[in-house]
Specification:
heterotrimer; A mainly alpha (about 100); B alpha+beta (about 500); C alpha/beta (about 525); A: about 100 residues; mainly alpha; Histone, subunit A; two-stranded antiparallel ribbon; about 40% helix; flat; B: about 500 residues; alpha+beta; Arc Repressor Mutant, subunit A; 3 domains; three-stranded antiparallel sheet; 16 helices; 18 strands; about 20% strand; elongated; protein biosynthesis (chain B); glutaminyl-tRNA synthase (glutamine-hydrolyzing) activity (chain B); Asn/Gln_amidotransferase (chain B); Gln-tRNA_amidoTrfase_suB_CS (chain B)
Chain lengths: ~100, ~500, ~525
């Protein structure tokens, strides 16, 4: 397993929407390298025939009937909003496309 | 943004050199009572942020729970598209940041869609049938609605800020993805439109979606690429997002074919990117190119457990499937006895259901067609709505027709009565009574009016006596005028002939 | 009043029922204790928020019902009127919920977690919200954005984490009961290092609705207390099916109180206890190992059959955990973006776009450990790495489950030290994330497999508590209570009382500090 590079970390920080200074990137790169090395053995632990487990206790078909429940009031919806207008959340301009 | 003025190659020329390959991702909003993962109401058009629970808002600590009806609707769609239904499938998180996505991930399906490997036989307007292979149909949730404020256009570019309403966030969606469609050639734009129309018809017929494109219930992303004629390796594709009317789908595919050909003819490479459709100019402009930001980091949704379908469950749902639209059309055409042209017009006007209901209420197929394709369509056009939106009930049509057949009113009066019905004045019979619109059947009153007319037009009378019976028409106008339109034209003719001693 | 705070929850409940103490007196005694030991330079700092007014009001309501007698009093829950502290990862109406993060400073939830609804229905006065590592990420409570909690046994040491606040509150007699959450040991490891009891229920046994998710497939809410029986009562109260949590088990809650009472008899005849060979020896402090070995002897003397079991894949568990957990973290914490709630930071310079606001908000709102895990998880899930990391880790999860299955063929419960060391000094591991992660080596396998675990006090090493962990098969939480209560009662006979009674007297220490 190749060590994680500074460019990798910068890319991951962009994907994760966390702004990082150069100093933070350097520090994070070093720390992640150590951690990744320590856990790399996981990738060799299990053979191809071992199935993946995503849920510790297997359940299936847990459904809800299609019945309307209680909604929040607009006041509750917006009570913690950093900014709002016209019963809606207000956010700065969006440059990227969907 | 890339320049919008790219040189296009004329459609026919483009098709001489290239084969288009199409692909569609159609998103269908289900009309369940509640959202996909929350018991918030799934209602269009309510006040902002009123159909919101902690789950829809992605508040800290919330968990999703799957709406069983949404799963069943998804299976119904899969069955109607001749898909296989997964024995077991799960949900996955698609991770990306966008303010209309409350959790900054969309709960969707990834490797194991609920329905896969299907097909849809799409009928073009001339009756040619084209089979479109369906790759998959999977369940997911809709995003909230962003309104871009400030700037001049209301578009995202140049906006000062945006407002977010999460009413739509979490509405159940089924995304239907086709396999690459090759071989449509010149008919590609037409097929595009017909495919989306067919999907819309199916989900509407199933009753699982309101299927109103203008409300975004059915939304289409259209992929287009070109390959040189005879080649078997697909070209680079563009993905035109949110083409949200049938006409636009057709135009967008046509435009992209012309644009791709222009790029290729200029010796350039088509960029793999999303495109935006502009209805006003009927063109697309470049959106975001594919990039490493498209790393959605899908992984199994740990807050939801798998859906396991049993044969019993599938068969129970299959039994609920209505007659497929294409088969239904074939049957109705035969039952109603319409000509090819008449039936096509009815289908294109979207009036199959309305006419069917009117026939069921007791009208003949011809009468039902006459009213819906005639007066009701005309009134709808004037009112800038669709015929079904006017609120004419089958019972009204049956009653109006009964009054005509009983010779209580004539066609012209009947049309007036319909307008009064729509204005809320009552039933046709009540209106005829109240407004005194009944046809004048009193022969003596009618006779007087006829004699007056004959007296003022001796030349016409002479022509009739000479055997030119069509001249009677000239007398009908004055008689109608004298009786304020309430005379029955047939009866006028009979009385004229009677008075002149001529056998009709 | 000192007496009241030293009572176990069950003892206090008996006195409330007998009318010897009122709930208002009980709540006030604990509020006084909080005022005396929690604040100040060298206070325990178990609480982030104290909910005095509401707690007293609920207490008064219980007292009134009890005073009125009749059916109303009869219908009261056994724990009605007994105060409780809530880990600040669990959302509560009327009290702020911060998750120990600046990101949620001042955030007020408009809804209650399901466990909170149950606590309200049973009328347990909520004393307040307890400190934790930010978003429950840590083993020492030092990653709290609001400063660390101190270990009541030694104020210069960590109380464990992430639920150090709940464990310290209970250990310092600031509350008889608390709620914790356990993703990789966050209830059990603090229990071990503070000489208290902590239980991670079977995954799905307690609703997660309203527990701010760290790693959804690993998180579980559970009880924190000073006695095994107290945890059994609290566990029964908070357990059970919740239609709002799709991973909640739709099964009746087993009778845990009965199991604990059975265990208190001290008889374990016929119970097979499996010693996990891989969770001892190298890496475990000598004092920890010594107390562990003594506990095995006590269990044997009580009639238990001690067998050795091997779990060869446990050596991969820590690595798998540090791939699965951060992956889920990276997605679960994406919602904190400054749009709908919580902190919003406008970038100091450059254009103000939503992308830059999100980046600046998350940069300022999250601490280093949270960022580390988000980046690590983003890496583990990213294109090209998924199979090697996340995919492999999920396979290891299967292997760990198979190890448990095989071990439970040979034993009814498994046993290990809860943590490899006693409480370490504040600041001694904050610069070395990996060393910090190693604290969870014995607790993590249970989370990966979804099986229940308990930590009970096992004595002292160098004056600091050691925890003994029992693990049971999924849905067999009752076995933990039986064996845990048995060990507790037998050890206490040797100690001449609860281990916690050997803890230093904080109130006088505080006075000395002030003087």
């Amino acid at each position: 397993m190749s060590a994680i590079s500074r460019e990798d970390v910068a890319h991951l920080a962009r994907l994760a929407h966390i702004e990082m200074s150069d100093a933070e990137l350097d520090k994070m790169t070093g720390e992640l390298g150590v951690i990744v090395d320590a856990i790399a053995s996981v990738s060799e632990a299990a053979g191809a025939d071992v199935p993946a487990t995503s849920h510790p206790i297997p359940l299936a078909n847990v459904f809800r009937e299609d019945v309307v429940g209680e909604t929040l009031t607009v006041e509750q919806v917006l009570q913690n909003a950093p900014d709002s207008e016209d019963s809606r959340f207000k956010v700065p301009a969006i440059l990227d496309e969907e | 943004m890339a320049a919008t003025t790219e040189s296009l190659v004329d459609f026919d020329e483009a098709l001489e050199k290239y084969d288009p390959v199409l692909g569609f991702e159609v998103h269908v909003e289900l009309n369940t009572k509640t959202k996909m993962f929350s018991d918030a109401p799934n209602v269009f058009g309510d006040e902002p942020n009123t159909n919101v629970t902690p789950v829809c808002l992605g508040l800290p600590g919330v968990l999703p729970v799957v709406n069983k009806t949404a799963v069943e609707y998804s299976i119904l769609i899969g069955l109607a598209l001749n898909c296989k239904i997964a024995e077991t499938c799960g949900f996955a998180r698609k991770n990306y940041f966008y303010p209309d996505t409350p959790k900054n991930f969309q709960t969707s399906q990834y490797e194991d869609p609920i329905a896969y490997d299907g097909y849809l036989d799409v009928e073009l307007e001339d009756g040619e049938v084209f089979r479109v292979e369906i790759e998959r149909a999977h369940m997911e949730e809709d995003a909230g609605k962003l309104t871009h404020m400030g700037g001049s256009t209301g578009r995202i570019q140049g906006a000062d800020f945006s407002l977010v309403d999460y009413n739509r966030a979490g509405v159940p969606l089924v995304e239907i993805v086709t396999k690459p469609i090759v071989g449509a050639g010149k008919r590609a734009p037409e097929l595009a439109k017909a495919y989306v129309a067919a999907v819309r018809e199916i989900v509407k017929n199933l009753g699982v979606s309101d299927a109103k494109m203008e409300r975004g219930n059915v939304r289409c992303d259209a992929n287009v690429s070109l390959m040189p004629k005879g080649a078997d390796k697909f070209g680079t594709r563009s993905e035109t997002k949110n083409v949200n009317s049938l006409r636009a789908v057709e135009h967008a595919v046509r435009f992209e074919i012309e644009r791709h050909a222009g790029v290729l003819e200029a010796g350039q490479k088509v960029v793999q990117e999303t495109r935006h459709w502009h209805e006003d100019t009927r063109t697309t402009t470049a959106g975001r190119p594919k990039s490493d930001a498209d790393d959605y980091r899908y992984f199994p949704e740990p807050d939801l457990v798998p859906v396991v379908t049993t044969a019993e469950w599938i068969e129970e749902l299959r039994a609920r499937l209505p007659e497929p639209p294409a088969e239904r059309r074939k049957r109705l055409k035969a039952e109603w006895g319409y000509s090819d042209a008449e039936f096509r017009d009815v289908v294109n006007a979207g009036l199959l259901d309305a006419i069917g209901e009117t026939i069921a209420a007791g009208a003949s197929a011809a009468v039902a067609r006459k009213w819906w394709m005639g007066e009701i369509s005309r009134l709808a056009k004037n009112a800038d709505t669709d015929p079904e939106g006017l609120g004419v009930t089958p019972a009204t049509i049956v009653e109006l027709n009964g009054l005509i057949e009983a010779k209580k009113i004539n066609d012209k009066i009947a049309r007036q009565v319909l307008e009064f019905v729509l204005a809320g004045e009552g039933t046709p019979a009540e209106i005829v009574q109240k407004r005194g619109l009944a046809v004048v059947n009193d022969d003596s009153a009618l006779g007087a009016a006829i004699e007056d007319a004959m007296a003022t037009m001796p030349d016409v009378v002479a022509k009739i006596k000479d055997g030119k019976l069509q001249a009677i028409g000239a007398l009908i106008g004055p008689v109608m005028k004298a009786t304020r339109g309430q005379a029955d034209a047939g009866r006028v003719r009979e009385l004229v002939l009677e008075k002149l001693g001529i056998e009709g | 009043m000192t007496e009241i705070i030293k009572l176990s929850a069950v003892e206090l409940a008996q006195k409330l029922r007998a009318g010897e103490v009122t709930s208002v007196q009980a709540v006030q005694a604990h509020l006084d204790r909080i005022a005396a030991v929690d604040g100040g330079e060298r206070g325990v700092h178990a609480f982030l928020h104290v909910n005095a007014e509401e707690a007293l009001a609920v207490a008064a309501e219980v007292d009134a019902i009890r005073a009125a007698g009749g059916a109303g009093a009869e219908a009261l829950h056994p724990l009605a009127g007994v105060p409780i502290a809530i880990k600040d990862l669990i959302v509560t109406v009327g009290q702020p919920t911060t998750a120990g993060s600046k990101m949620l400073e001042g955030w007020m939830s408009p809804y209650d977690a399901t466990v909170i609804s149950k606590i309200r229905a049973a009328k347990l006065p909520m004393l307040g919200k307890t400190n934790l590592d930010e978003f429950a990420m840590g083993s020492s409570t030092e990653h709290s954005a609001y400063g660390p909690t101190r270990n009541p046994w030694d104020l210069d040491r960590i109380p464990g984490g992430s639920g150090g606040g709940s464990a310290a509150a209970v250990a310092a007699f600031e509350a008889p009961l608390a709620l914790g959450t356990d993703t990789g040991g966050s209830i059990r490891q603090p229990g071990a290092v503070t000489g208290t009891v902590g239980v991670k229920p079977t995954y799905g046994g307690v609703s997660r609705y309203g527990a701010i998710a760290m790693a959804s497939s690993l998180d579980q809410i559970g009880p924190v207390s000073r006695t095994v029986l107290d945890s059994a009562y609290l566990h029964e109260l908070i357990g059970g099916h919740d239609p709002r949590d799709s991973t909640s088990l739709n099964e009746p809650v087993p009778s845990l109180v009965d199991a604990a009472r059975q265990g208190l008899s001290g008889d374990l005849t016929g119970v097979r206890v499996g010693v996990i060979a891989e969770l001892q020896g190298d890496g475990y402090e000598a004092g920890v190992q010594a107390r562990f070995n003594e506990s095995l002897e006590v269990l044997r003397a009580a009639g238990a059959e001690i067998v050795e079991v091997h779990c060869p894949n446990f050596k991969y568990a820590l690595g798998a955990y540090y791939l699965i957990m951060p992956s889920e973290v990276s997605s679960n914490l994406a919602k904190f973006d400054g749009v709908r709630y919580g902190k919003r930071v406008i970038p100091a310079d450059g254009p103000v776009t939503i992308e830059r606001v999100m980046g600046a908000t998350r940069a300022a709102g999250f601490g280093d450990e949270v960022k580390r895990r988000i980046i690590l998880g983003t890496y583990a899930l990213s294109a090209g790495y998924y199979d090697a990391y996340y995919g492999s880790a999920q396979k290891v999860r299967t292997l760990v489950q198979r190890d448990f299955d095989a071990a439970f063929e040979k034993a009814d419960v498994l046993v290990s030290p809860t943590a490899p060391t006693v409480a370490f000094g504040l600041g001694s591991k904050t610069g070395d994330p990996l060393a910090m992660y190693l604290n969870d080596v014995a607790t993590i396998p249970a989370n990966l497999a979804g099986v229940p675990g308990i930590s009970v006090p096992g004595g002292l090493s160098e004056g600091l508590p050691v925890g003994i962990q029992f693990l049971a098969p999924a849905r067999e939480d009752a076995r933990l209570y039986r064996v845990g209560a048995a060990l507790e009662s037998l050890l206490e006979k040797g100690w001449g009382g609860p281990l916690i009674s050997q803890a230093p007297d904080l109130a006088s220490a505080e006075k000395e500090g002030v003087a």
